[in-house]
Structures are given as C-alpha cells and as structure tokens.
Amino acid sequence: NAFVIVESVNPNNPVPPEIEVVDGAEMSFAGPLGVGWSANSSGKFTQSGGSVSVTSGFMTLADSANSVGTAELSGGTLNVAKTTVVGRLGSGTLNVSGGTFTAGTDELGSFRIGDYLGGPGTMTLSGTGEVNAPNYTAVGGWGNGTLNITGGTWNQAAGGIVVGDHPEGAGFTGRGDINQSGGTVNADAVLLQQGTYNLNGGTLVTEAVADTSSGATGVFNMNGGTLRARVNQADFIQADTVEIKSGGAIIDTADKEVSINKGMSGSGGLTKKGSGMLKLVGVHTYTGSTTVQEGTLRIEAANFTADATPSALDVVFTSAPADGQLAIFPGTLNGSPTVSFTGLAAGQTG
C-alpha cells in the first residue's frame, strides 16, 4: 500500500533527486507515484528497463505550485492504474522513447497533459516507444499542454484525444497543441476544441477528426503526414480551419468510403491513397495539385459529380453547364487520365 514520492525542496541543490529503474528491476506499489510533489520541489523518474506497476493509484508530474516533475521511459514497462497527470499545478514533462507505457483510467481519463489545475505539461513520444491509453487523453485546456510525436506508436482505445479541453462555461483559458512529425497514432477519434493538430509526418489512423466545442477554435493542419480512415465516415474532418500546408495532405481511405465536407484551404496539394473512395463535398480552395494514386476521388459540386481514378476522369453534369471554362478540381490534376463528360448540351465538348 506504499506510495512513492521523488522530490527535493532544497533550493541549493541544482540536481533534482532521481529514481532510476534498469533491466531486471521490478517495482510494484499501490500509488500514487509523484515526481515533484510538494510546492517548490523538483524530481526525476527514469526507467530504461524492468517493470514498474502502480497498482491502484495515479501518477503525477509536478503536483504542486512551482514544482517541476520529469519522467523518462526508454525501456521496460510502466503500468499506471489510474490517470497520469503531466503538469498539475507545476511544470511537468513526460518523455517516452522506448518501452511501453500503459495508462489507466478513472473519471479524469488516461492522460491529462497540462489540463489539470492550470500547470503546463509537455509529453513527447519518440523512437520505439509505445503508449496505450484506454480512456480519453486531454492535451491542454485548463492549462497549456503539448504532445510531440516524432516516432513510436500511440494507441488511443476510447474517448478520443482531446486537443485543448474546453468545456462550455468552464472558463478554461489554456490551449492544446499536438505536433506529429513521425510515428503512428491509432485513435478512435481526435476531438478538436481549443488548439491545433499539426500532422507534419507519420500516420494518424482514426475514425474522425471532430470539432466538439462551439465556443472554441480548433485547427487541423496537414503538412506531409498521412491521415488514414478506420471506418466509413460521412464527415471525416471537422474543424474551424482545415489547411493543407506546403508539405501537402496525404489521405488514405484504405478500403473505406469517407467524405470531407469542410472546405480545405492552403497552398499545398492532395494525394489520395487507398482502394476506397474519398468524396470532397462543397467548396475547397487549396491551390496545390491533386494526385490520385489508388481508388477513387469524387468531387461533389453543385452541378456535377467528377470521379477520378489513376487512369480515368468521369464528369457527370446534373444539367448542361454554361459555355466557358469550368474548374473541376481546386488546383490541377496530376497524371494523364482518360476524360469523359456526360450531360453536356448539344454542340458542347469538354
């Protein structure tokens, strides 16, 4: 029934106390595990191997005012029965570069990164690290939270990854930012509230990117990473702003059928992968080129539907269009597909 606290409140000690768990070591205790627990304290927890189990409690990095708590996992397994809080009232940092971190769950979810009583929190997943979250993850909101993903695998089983937790009427003033440049995120959903998801690399596999707070501003930026669909979805990306940056958007439908109804803007282009169908509905204004590598990309406009595959472009008009130039795609279409038109007036050609 023990708990473990790692901290020093001695201002003259420039090096915070540290617990290090190495290969062959085993720790098992009820919890909590607190690193930088008291006001004005600092502490560090490092694990490069072995196993650590917090069997019934939570883990908190930087629990109290002006505290600093850091944890680093580079190998072994770390299991926490309840929520892991990165930055409660102080400044918390969690780095996972190897091994497996499995968070628990309670009414506060699996992870709260800078989203509990206002303290800032930063978490980084890199290398070969693996993170398992059975319940929702909140990145920022009450305070400022950042999740950096440069490698490894994040498995979000349920509850979604909340970017900038912003319950209406709660008065939260912080924000959340997720910066993914590598690795794989497997998530049931990404829930944008007050913050930004930057998909700069790696792969995000999800059922939907949703906007779940009308009183906040959520942004989804695609800049070289791959967004892959897990299920058929009639509204795949919802955000206040969806922008394709210069690195471009890679959307992989796998074998699913998904629609994007929110207009996508930006200077980048779109690459369609996967054997399924991607539907672009409404007005999209991105200016880069469009490439269909696999499957079908359908443009659903007011007066026509255009289906593009790697080898063909079929345009069907609801009624004959006016004479003149008509833009089918927001930018240019790469490749040399065979083009056919249905529904033109007598004498019209395409």
Give a verbal description of the structure.
This protein has 350 residues and is mostly beta strands. It contains no helices and 34 strands. The strands form 3 sheets. A 9-stranded parallel beta sheet has the order 1-4-7-9-11-14-17-19-21, with no helix packed on it. A 6-stranded parallel β-barrel has the order 10-12-15-18-16-13. Strands 26-29-31-32-33-34 form a 6-stranded mixed beta sheet, with no helix packed on it. Strand 31 and strand 32 form a beta hairpin. The N and C termini lie far apart (77 Å).
Gyration radius (Cα, Å) is 24 Å
Low-confidence stretches: none
- How many angstroms separate the termini? 77 Å
Residue share in β-strands: over 45%
Shape from CA axes? Answer: elongated
Structural class, from secondary structure content?
mainly beta
Question: Would you report the number of β strands?
Answer: 34
Mean pLDDT: 95
Main β-sheet description: 9 strands, parallel
Strand order in space, largest sheet:
1-4-7-9-11-14-17-19-21
Helix content: under 10%
Helical stretch count?
0
The gist of it:
The chain is 0% helix and 48% strand. It is mainly β.
